[in-house]
Amino acid sequence: MSSASDKISSAQEDLEKLVGDLRGLLSSKDLDSLPEIRQLRKRLDESVYTVRDSAVRAAQEAAHQAKEAARVANNYAHDEPWRVATAAMAVGALVGFLLARR
């Protein structure tokens, strides 16, 4: 899960760097008189807001799904403790067997 959040954070940093570079390019005083540049700045700001909003919603949805999966796993472990214990023991035995063969 941390890998996904690292990727999201990295993508967000890249996006903000790109936006910063574009704003720096478009902030030239020589370009202030051009209506196209004002329009471009406005569209850029709107797009950044939209992308940030979408990223926040995606992160919230991912967190909600992770919490739901954890809740379901917790409920299953409490409802079926012997199955969980048996599965854990089987996995442990398999790992032990594989490590013993080395």
TrEMBL record:
The question of whether Transmembrane is a record keyword is answered with yes
Q: Give the GO cellular component terms, alphabetically.
A: plasma membrane
**What keywords would UniProt list here?**
Cell inner membrane, Cell membrane, Membrane, Transmembrane, Transmembrane helix
Span of the signal peptide = none
State one molecular function term (GO). Answer: ribosome binding
State the compartments where it is located: Cell inner membrane
Its placement in the membrane is given as: Single-pass membrane protein
Could you name the domain of life of the organism this protein comes from? Bacteria
The UniProt entry, under InterPro entries, shows: DUF883_C, DUF883_N, YqjD/ElaB
> What family does the database annotate?
Belongs to the ElaB/YgaM/YqjD family.
Identify this protein by name.
DUF883 domain-containing protein
Please give the organism.
Answer: Diaphorobacter aerolatus
